[in-house]
Specification:
The complex is a heterodimer of chains A (342) and B (349). Chain A is an alpha/beta fold. Chain A has eleven helices and twelve strands. The relative contact order of chain A is 0.15. In chain B, strand 8 and strand 9 form a beta hairpin. In chain B, helix 1 packs parallel to helix 11. Classes of the chains: A alpha/beta (342), B alpha/beta (349). At the A-B interface, helix 1, helix 2, helix 3, helix 4 and strand 7 of A face helix 1, helix 2, helix 3 and strand 9 of B.
């Protein structure tokens, strides 16, 4: 299982400093850069940054931060997680990521998604009623741009293109592109239709319940005559020296964040018991390196995925604890998972 | 202005370089820009800026991304644009990108906004050239509001409205240095003055001194609008080599084909050798030895009351060694000499 890939994923949550004070957005961004540099040194395969437009997250343009990371790292792959394609322009997205790819000697990776939050729609002037159509049309154009030849295209939600040639070109001729899916079978089939790799966002419940999506992806690719790539999963978690410490550092901030989002989506407030149960056998990979490695290995084995990305921040966990989590993930968890699966 | 405060910067339009006989790939050129920003800082230059273009041979389509990579490769040099085509960008996205750049660079981001002299971005992003003026005017208004106010409600005709939006990451209060780039339109000069923003003159042909009228207009207009005096900069093309002869021959070899193509496209004059040499002697090409280029910069700096001069040092297929030599000499020889010359004779202030 040496071709398994392990990533770290963040939205650039604004952390607390050691005095318990929230740092500035700017400092939160620099924290992400420093964490990525450490992850690179420890041999983590991917750092993925998600685009958000909310005050508690500092990353609204993943590629600008990834470019900053590119200069200071040499091996780690630089991904978005996700790029909200629906409210962005496919031409601009290509240009930005092709530039990151150049800066990093071919380490860029776009993960396209529709976004689970909707703030970007009013911000950039899109109508939520076009949610599906926006993504459908824009991914269609994006896939054409991936050929890196002049593109002629027309649709209903973006200006047409007539033999438009877009620069810079990549060295490999192929900008690595995934599609992030939250739980819509339709999105899974579309990903298979384009022959793109699938990244499953599994943020609650038993990971095994996502097995049918992976099966659907493979069957769809087979029927459509495209390639089924190894599937990736991304899930939240946190690592500290002991199980107890990991849970206690994570919980108070996670609870605030979870209830804030819950209010928007009509979820009841989270109870400690639910949290403990998610940690025990759901989709929160929280604990000592041994505990997290064991749970990751089980999920990877049961779903047969080729990549696991850990969302290592959820709320204002202190910057120093986050850095420690990154360190333990790279130095302990990844080697342990590899060993468990060998 | 104190001569010691005179700023010297570099501009690149992301143009493909060569290495020996080999033309670098787009990606290699992108990486070369980061090396050049690092070199610029090491020789003490003040600003490194990139343009925004959408044509073959140019690799500056994602300006903030390029600058963010330069940001973590440097610690002091300021990072900007020359120019950002505001008309075909979204001010909200631009705010995100430059506030992120400012964060990554620890407060070194700045930009020059303009309407662009090349028009490729209009069809590419679905804009109508008929809206050229209105696009810029409205988007400038919004971009400045986003920098100034934490919560913005805005409506206009060229972009969807915003209702009580707060953008993240936040810039520091007051935003980042934002200049207006002008090519020669008095309307643009007055607009810069109306907003109280610094003025960057793009002077790419003819005697720079003919912009003196614009400088006067700008100074008077600033006063009438009740703003304090603002910095004035000049952007021009050129190359610095060890001798005048080497500089003149090298630049001619690479500039001539580019100028000829541009002449056909935009109706400029055709570049013959006599005109070329005249451009170097008293026009807008800053080509020569460090002493020649320093004298020339000091002269325009006095005549146009400049606070900043940016040299656009790359031109299609110019060898990377020649680019590097320009940067080294600009920082190590030209910059100190310009400051020395400006200190000798009192400037406008």
């Amino acid at each position: 299982m040496s071709d398994l890939m392990f990533g770290l994923d963040t939205f650039g949550d604004v952390p607390q400093d050691d005095a318990g004070k929230l740092v500035s957005h700017a400092a939160a961004i620099r924290q992400v850069v420093d964490e990525a540099v450490l992850a690179d040194q420890l041999g983590v395969d991917v750092i993925a940054l998600g685009e958000h437009h909310r005050p508690e997250y500092s990353v609204s343009t993943p590629e600008t931060v990834l470019a900053g990371i590119a200069t200071r790292t040499s091996r780690i792959r630089l991904a978005s997680g996700v790029t909200v394609l629906s409210s962005d322009d496919p031409v601009r997205v290509f240009q930005r990521f092709a530039t990151v790819d150049a800066l990093s000697n071919g380490r860029a990776e776009v993960i396209l998604g529709r976004g689970s939050f909707t703030e970007s729609f009013p911000l950039f002037g899109y109508d939520l009623r076009d949610y599906d159509k926006l993504f459908e049309e824009k991914i269609d154009l994006f896939v054409k741009l991936l050929d890196e030849r002049p593109v002629t295209w027309s649709g209903t939600l973006r200006a047409p293109l007539e033999q438009a040639d877009v620069f810079p070109k990549t060295e490999s001729g192929h900008l690595s592109t995934w599609v992030g899916v939250g739980g819509s079978p339709q999105s899974v089939v579309r990903t298979a239709q384009y022959g793109l790799p699938l990244m499953l966002a599994i943020i609650g419940g038993a990971p095994e319940r996502f097995a049918p999506y992976i099966d659907l992806y493979r069957r769809a690719a087979d029927q459509l005559g495209t390639t089924a790539h190894p599937v990736g999963m991304h899930s939240p978690g946190f690592i500290a020296d002991t199980d107890e410490e990991a849970k206690e550092v994570y919980w108070p901030h996670y609870r605030i964040m979870r209830d804030r989002i819950g209010k928007l989506r009509g979820w009841p407030p989270i109870r400690r018991q639910e949290f403990d149960s998610e940690v025990e056998h759901g989709s929160l990979y929280i604990g000592s390196p041994e505990t997290v490695a064991r749970r990751m290995a089980r999920a990877i084995r049961s779903l047969g995925v080729g990549r696991f990305d850990l969302i290592y921040s959820a709320g204002a966990q202190p910057a120093s604890a986050r850095m420690r989590a990154v360190e333990l993930y790279g130095s302990k968890v990844i080697p342990m998972v590899r060993e468990l699966l060998a | 202005m104190a001569a010691a405060d005179f700023e010297l910067g570099l501009n690149s339009f992301g143009e493909v370089a060569t290495d020996g006989d080999r033309v670098l790939s787009d990606a290699e050129t992108v990486r070369l820009l980061v090396d050049e920003a690092r070199l610029a800082e090491s020789v003490g230059l003040d600003v490194f800026s990139v343009g925004e273009h959408y044509r073959a041979g140019h690799n500056d389509s994602a300006t903030p991304v390029l600058l963010a990579a330069a940001a973590t490769a440097t610690t002091r040099i300021r990072l900007g644009t020359s120019v950002t085509v505001l008309s075909t960008n979204d001010p909200v996205r631009l705010y995100h990108e430059f506030s992120t750049l400012d964060a990554v660079s620890n407060g070194r981001a700045q930009l020059v906004l303009g309407r662009a002299s090349a028009t490729e971005s209009f069809p590419l992003f679905g804009y109508d050239l008929a809206d050229y003026e209105r696009l810029f005017e409205e988007k400038l208004d919004l971009f400045l509001r986003l920098q100034h106010d934490e919560t913005v409600t805005w409506s206009g005709t060229v972009r969807s409205p915003l209702t009580e939006q707060r953008l993240h990451p936040r810039m520091q209060p007051g935003g980042i240095p934002t200049w207006i780039g002008v090519g020669g339109s008095p309307n643009s000069v007055i607009r810069a003055a109306r907003h109280g923003l610094p003025l960057m003159l793009a002077i790419i042909g003819g005697r720079p001194q003919r912009f003196a009228g614009h400088v006067d207009l700008y100074t008077r207009a600033l006063e009438q609008f009740g703003h304090t005096p603002q910095p004035i900069g000049q952007h021009s093309l050129g190359l610095v080599a060890d001798t005048d002869e080497e500089a003149v021959e090298t630049w001619w070899r690479y500039w001539q084909p580019v100028a000829a193509a541009l002449a056909a496209e935009r109706g400029f004059y055709k570049p013959d050798r006599a005109r070329y040499e005249a451009e170097i002697d008293h026009g807008a090409l800053f080509v020569g030895s460090p002493e020649t280029v320093a004298q020339k910069i000091a002269t325009v700096a006095r005549d146009l009351r400049l606070n900043r001069f940016d040299l656009k040092y790359d031109i299609m297929h110019l060898p990377r060694e020649a680019r590097a030599r320009t940067i080294e000499l600009l920082g190590s020889a030209v910059a100190p000499r310009v400051r020395e010359l400006l200190a000798k004779e009192p400037t406008h202030v």
